[in-house]
Amino acid sequence: MNYSKNAFPFIKSGIWRHTITTKNSSTPKLVQKGGHSFFRKFGTQIKKGPLRRGQLLASGSAFATLFGLSFFDFSNHGITVKEVMSHNSPKDCWIVLNDDVYDVTEFLNKHPGGVSPLMEVAGKDATLKFSQVHSTTTLEKMKEQLVFVGKLRGKFENFLNEEELRIEELKTRVPPLETIFSLSDFESVAKEVLPKTTFTFFATGSADEFTLRENHYAYSRVFFKPRVLQDIEPEEIDTSTSFLGSKVDLPIYVSGFAGSRLAHPLGEKNLQAAAYKYNMMQMVPKQNSFSPEEFYPDVPSNQVQTQQFHFNERREIDEVDKLLRDLEKRPTIKGVFFNVDLADIGNREKDNKQRIKNTAENAGVDSIVDHRYGQYPKFTWGDVEKIVKSTSIPVALKGVQRGEDVVLAAKKGIKAVVLSNTGGRQLDYSRPPLEVLAESRKMLKENKLEEKIELYLDGGIRRGSDVVKALCLGAKGVGLGRPFLYAMAGYGEDGASHLIGILKEEIKNNMRLLGVKRIEDLNESFIDAKGLNLRTPRANDVLYDSAYMPLSFPEFKNL
Ligand code: HEM
Ligand SMILES: Cc1cc2nc3c(=O)[nH]c(=O)nc-3n(C[C@H](O)[C@H](O)[C@H](O)COP(=O)(O)O)c2cc1C
């Protein structure tokens, strides 16, 4: 399957016309609830609502063929849609993936993403939802865990539900990109144009979200000490630096995360293109929704990328050599970042609540019990040592959270660490990475190891000033996660590029005002970080706070 952007130039417009032309949807509603009706304009066609998936473009079937789908099946063999739909409970759950019907009842409690995402598509065609989070590789690797029932006969009649209709309409009138001035502006648009379940998956953190909030607020505890009257021409400001030996034009990178295709159909490809445009590093996620065969043909050989990887099963640790050999052959990959804060999945309570609510509604049951804990395999310093010895690729760790571990990593030949708590999605009350950075720099200096390892950090970075503060405290570079998802949600690749442009200008502006010409000249003398560890009252950050979603309490039933 080729998802090359050139094949679908209109996708760049940010309007997801094609998403409603496929038959493979996760929301098969045989009747349109509520009878919404309004005029909608698509190119030269004007349609009057309620929209049916597949109804849209005159060339719908040709389009579907491009996606490797066929709308009609005239054979009498296979399993009917009605039959599939009757297997929609936790005790008897079938789903359809690419016209193959699977019984996933046994798999429900083994699914690393939990029971509820599967129950959301119980008795339905799960192809689209699956492809938004997984690549075809995931299915191939795990097929033996699913029970193949047979081929689907016919097609699901899919209508857009009310939320989807509202979103499609909103997407035709998102604010012009020129009116997006900050990363928070992107977030406000994303909150409107993403389904609630998706926004909740992106935005929320674990438990009471103290870490999620502190990640960001830590930056507000550091102030600048500008140097005045410097002999610097405005155009002399240079934001370039080097990451793991490769030159990049910005000290920021797009982090590796799941779910890009939930934000936009071209997900990670948008990020790759925008990162290349700015010569900014892209960390390619393990959970890339494109398989390597779909993803890498579009990647120029001089792009700067790294690979993020985590282990879902022990087998993957034992077979890590294969991964390393593959990565060694990829010219763009400058390092591999292994997650080290995944001894268990974080308690993402808000996300789970939202999913369970959705799922229970869809499945017509009161509640769903989700088992997500205790699924990750043991991954130790011993494994890390073996990996370092067995590859020529620089090995790095993502998710380090204390100075002692940074020192240990440097001693064991690790080339870089990302000080990260996975954006507040793992252990709540983990400290903000900015604090860990200050601690780590000090401990590396004490151990004379500061030249041995590069320090990166991510979590809560929303302004150029945040970036500059982290660099002053000794970070080589900083990663961003959610802002890229939000930018893509409203505007696809253009949004991702605009986001980088905003940060670049903010960084340059901060450097000019600080009296600093080059990234390597930023140091601790430019900041006052005395308050960094004082997690005491703070001034409200209005933009950040207004986008924040509070945790909700259980609701009474409507009888
Ligand atoms: C039946 C076939 C499926 C298989 C074999 C499968 C496999 C997996 C695997 C291996 C992961 C862990 C990924 C990682 O941590 O690297 C995962 C996570 C996940 N899956 Fe699935 N999955 C399936 C179906 C689905 C469907 C149909 C949905 C959505 C409706 C879904 C949604 C998710 C989500 C939301 C996550 C968690 C992502 C995260 O928190 O990072 N999965 N799945
Ligand atoms: C929706 C979502 C999914 C994520 N998935 C992963 C993942 O699969 N692997 C990983 O290492 N980090 C993952 N992350 C964490 C990011 O890589 C990054 O550490 C974090 O988002 C940085 O915080 P920020 O979002 O505040 O910028 C995910 C983050 C989000 C928001």
Automatic annotation (TrEMBL):
UniProt keyword terms in alphabetical order: Heme, Iron, Metal-binding, Oxidoreductase
UniProt-recorded name of the protein: Cytochrome b2, mitochondrial
Domain of life: Eukaryota
Protein source organism: Zygosaccharomyces mellis
Domain Cytochrome b5 heme-binding intervals: 76-153
Lineage of origin: Eukaryota, Fungi, Dikarya, Ascomycota, Saccharomycotina
Pfam families on file: Cyt-b5 (PF00173), FMN_dh (PF01070)
Chain ranges of the FMN hydroxy acid dehydrogenase domain: 175-532
Molecular function, one GO term: heme binding
UniProt record, GO biological process: lactate metabolic process
